[in-house]
Amino acid sequence: MSNINQSLTAIALQKFKKNFWGVFSLGYIVLMVFLALFAYVIAPDNSENANQMHLSIHSKSPGFAVKMLSIPSSKIEDKTIKGYFFGHPNQVTEIPISSYQLKDNKLQYVEYTEDKTLRLVKEITLDKFIDYNSFKQVEQELITNKKFYLGTDKYGRDLLSRMLVGSRVSISIGFVAVLISVVVGLFFGALGGYYGGKIDALVMWLVNIIWSIPTLLLVIAITLALGKGFWQVFVAVGLTMWVEVARVVRGQIISVKEMQYVTAARALGFSNGRIILNHILPNIMAPVIVISAANFASAILVESGLSFLGLGAQPPIPSWGSMIKDHYSYIILGKPYLALVPGTAIMLITLAFMMTGNALRDALDVKS
Fold first, then answer.
1. What is the mean pLDDT of residues 153-179?
2. Which of 87, 235, 243, 342 is the most exposed, fewest CB within 10 Å of its CB?
3. What is the pTM of this model?
4. What CATH number should be reported for the domain whose range is 2-34+160-364?
């Protein structure tokens, strides 16, 4: 009796909560969205695009630590709120060092290098950029022990920071591409399913044409037409995924457009647009939500493939696909983690969306 008094939404929510892997996957997705939004707050390297390079410490293993000399620029700007979401301007020059000493108001240091024969002693005059009164103050302000928890890439950039900032590309392309595919798919699916006849034949002809072209090739063609770039990839991926939504929406509308509540709406003189938007679409959104979750995963995989081919987000913007492209050769060079870390991240976020979609399908199934 309790289920009778509950709304369908409440019943579906209860069924979803009972699915452990669905709830776990949704929690993982929420965590990844949080990390993507606050990537520059969490990342050790909060410079724009986490692009602080140190060639002398390239391709270091996870947990590598080194002394870092940070030389501030002549003009230090205060950190703004915008910087916490889009990265701060690079205001210091970081130099990995092996040792240092203070002598006659000069800081002498030895740059880090694995070849001891190439180690050279260099020095900087402290009063050129800031006034330091003691050796202890120099140590506190200029020299830190920096640890790279996931190691460094082939350019000596912090891999953890690049992973966090790169998650923005994968997460955001999922949202934007799915939004575009849902809007376009609902429009064409509703037209074909509700009006039928020649309009339906035209919509299905267009759907079949796009369906017959391999997704990746179509995305590449649209990307080349729009140009390489961040937003161009989002639009290209979104414009290739609407056909699945359109087919589902068309089929659902055909099955419900002759039902009593639609007939009653017509009898009351409601316009076709009002009937579609206010009466039909709200009652067929369950399968659209499920297919949108699957499209999230597909969009992430397509973007990764484009970035691997060099057609995705362009350097220095980090993305998981481009990170695999830069380091896939390291798999046979004894440092496979450089490619496995972003590859594992892609696999986990894709699996999370697929598991969430499966859980939503079970929860929204009225027959179960």
1. 90
2. 235
3. 0.84
4. 1.10.3720.10
